[in-house]
């Protein structure tokens, strides 16, 4: 059985500036082909900021961007974003398929040394995604 081809993207993030970070990733994703999975950094729209959820892009905006990139690259796109939900702020890992199916996981084990547990609600679900 052939393995998955995975690309990991990293770049210096523009602190708390979602649109600027998406523009940077637009450029990085240009021309990427032949991959099964593309992984973006943790909190790729804001940087690892404790106050990011309050000023972050809406989940729909991020998912729409990720869906367009997944279709463009014909790959599953994954990365986490800080979001404000009805139950509080979460560090949500989104996995978006080219067909538009969205899976998500709210980070369970928050980084206590950075006081992440004081700013974000821990998830409680285990998520398994089958892909290709």
From TrEMBL:
Keywords annotated in UniProt: Hydrolase
EC number(s) recorded for this UniProt protein: 3.5.1.111
Gene Ontology MF terms in the entry: 2-oxoglutaramate amidase activity; omega-amidase activity
InterPro entries: C-N_Hydrolase, C-N_Hydrolase_sf, Omega-amidase_YafV
Broad EC category: hydrolase
Domain CN hydrolase, chain residue ranges per copy: 4-132
Entry superkingdom: Bacteria
A Pfam family the protein falls into: CN_hydrolase
PANTHER family on file: OMEGA-AMIDASE YAFV
Protein known as: 2-oxoglutaramate amidase
